[in-house]
Amino acid sequence: MKTHKLFLAPCADLTTPALRREIRRLSKDVILFSEMISASSLMRGGLRNDYLVKKHEFDDPISFQLIGNDPAIMARAAEKLEENMLYSVDINMGCSAPEIRARGWGSALMADRVLASKIVRECRKKVKTLSVKCRAGFERSDYDNLFSFVKMLKDEGADFVSLHPRASDMAFKRSADWSLTERLVAEKIIPVIGNGDIKTAKEALVRLESSPEGIMIGRAAVKMPWIFAEIDAVSESKSYSVNIEDSAINILSGIEELLPVEIRESRILKYCVYFCQNLKFGHALFTEIRRNPFSSAELIRAYFERNPVERIIDK
Ligand SMILES: Cc1cc2nc3c(=O)[nH]c(=O)nc-3n(C[C@H](O)[C@H](O)[C@H](O)COP(=O)(O)O)c2cc1C
To answer: Label partner for 74 (CA 20 to 30 A): which of 26, 41, 132, 144?
Structure first.
């Protein structure tokens, strides 16, 4: 029996309902994640929130992620999200985007432990399961500092953490340092979900040895939404096959059906950048899509007419 859990990593503008629906079609038990949701915007009733906080019938199980740094507002937002019956409400303490850090949100909380602990304490009172996504540190990776930060999360009531083992200052530079994940897992203070740089199903199985509770995959799951199903197949020594044209068309249809009209063009482009990385002539295809995003489905179909051998991936 499978003892580990597989998670989709939260990715702003990418882990949209369109991508989630396709991942769920391919893999029934993966735990999905929403895009990050600003707690202050949610409590102000900001325009995009209806779309961000809607839980669809295909979403279960799913965690919704909050970002912000005001403990009272975060707690109220967590309570509101909890109405959705979630796998967990997650607190973003990992985002390294400069505009997020400048507001004291995301990974900036790793540099303000007093505030971070207050946020966890207040949110804890409002939800059944609370998780936190963090990095290896703020300015630099430092195991002792990471350990005491995670210990604080545990003591304040977090149920599990996911760890992207790069310091915030590293953004996506160099490689994720999985030795930090291994050390944290070995402490057994809290369930740890390992995340960072997993690119293939085979690599995922290696990472599960370091992080047996579970792993989380972001960019590779956008490029290959079938990766979770493939991990299950590979771990059972079964073969796996997927029609990647159908997968892309399903996601593009989902963007049209499930996303507000004003963000569709941007989300088509953001998704297609990743999908095209699967293809031999993906660069040329993406150039065509960029010129005409709303014809992306036809352009993809025409691509596979020209290159039918790329349609099915067999493992
Ligand atoms: C475009 C993009 C958007 C992201 N947005 C979020 C986010 O909203 N919340 C979050 O915690 N992490 C976010 N991340 C970080 C991912 O969840 C993940 O930790 C990181 O990409 C490393 O995992 P990977 O190598 O499997 O992609 C984002 C990453 C990318 C590339």
So the answer is: 144
Residue 272: pLDDT band (50, 70, 90) is very high
Q: What is the mean pLDDT of residues 275-279?
A: 98
Q: Which domain holds residue 26?
A: 5-238
**How many Å lie between the centroid of ligand 1 and the Cα of residue 305?**
33
Torsion of CA 291, 292, 296, 299, to 10 degrees: -70
Whether the CB of 219 sits within 6 Å of ligand 1: yes
Q: Name the residue at shortest CA distance from atom 4 of ligand 1.
A: 11
Domain count, the chain: 2
Query: Where is the domain boundary, 238, 260, 278?
Result: 238
Same domain, yes or no, for 213 and 286?
no
The average pLDDT across 171-184 equals 95
Pairwise CA distance, residues 199 & 264, whole Å: 27
Ligand 1 contacts CB of residue 170 (under 6 A): no
Average pLDDT for the chain:
97
CA-to-CA distance for 134 and 182, rounded, in angstroms? 15
Asked if residue 1 has pLDDT above 80, the reply is: no
